[in-house]
Amino acid sequence: MIASRLPSEFLRYLVGNGYQPGDRLPPLNELSKEIGISTGKLREQLDVARALGLVKASPRRGVTFTGYRFHPPVQLSLMVALAMDPQQFDNFSNMRNHLEAAYWSEATALLTDQDKEHLRALVEEAKRKLNQPRIQIPFREHRAFHLTIFSRLNNPFVIGILEAYWDAYEAVELNTYADYIYLQEVWDYHDRIGQAIARGDAAEGRRLLIEHFQLLHKRGVQIEA
Predict the structure, then answer these.
(1) Which of 74, 120, 136, 220 has fewest C-beta within 10 Å?
(2) Which domains does the chain have, with CATH numbers?
(3) What is the pLDDT of residues 67-122, one digit of tens each?
C-alpha cells in the first residue's frame, strides 16, 4: 500500500483513520499511546504534518485535521528557494505561465456566470484604484482575477502551484511595482481577457493571456535579494 511508504507513524495514522476536514484528533498523550511512539517523537512528526498543511494546533481546540492541499508544501519549498536565490522566481513564473496556458480552455469552460461577473467586478475595482488621485496597486484584484479563472478546476496540484505563485509574487515584492503605464497596460489586458471569457471565446482569451505574460519581462523588472 502507498500509505506504508509514508515517512512517519503519524502520517500513516492520519491516512489510515479517515479523518475529515475539521475533525479533532485525540490529545497528544492518547495519540502517542495509540500510535505507539513517544510524545516527543509525536511532536516532531506533528510539526511535519503542520508544514504539509494537514493539521493545525491551537491551545483551545487541540489538533485539528484540515484536509489535503498541495499549496502549503509547495509554498514552503518555494520560499526556501527564493530565500536562497530570488532569481528562481523567474523559473517558477515561467512554469506557472505554461500551466495557465495549458489549462486555459478547460478552466474557462467551467466558469459560471457568477464567476464571469466577479472577473468584471475585479477589473472595475482595479481600474478604480488606478484612477484615484493617490494610486493604489491592485495586487489583491490581480491575484483574485487569475485564481478565479482556474478556481473550478478539480485539480489540487494545479491550484496549489498557482496559489504559491502569487505568494512568491508578493514575497519578491512585485506587488509593490508601481510603474503607472505598466499597471494600466496590465489591466487593459485583464479587461479584454475577461470580455473574451464572458463571450465564450477561449482562443482569444488564451492569446491575450500569453501576450500579457510578456509585460513584466518587457519592463525589465529586477528582483532584489
Answers:
(1) 220
(2) 2-65 (1.10.10.10), 71-219 (1.20.120.530)
(3) 999 999 999 999 999 999 999 999 999 999 999 999 999 999 999 999 999 999 99
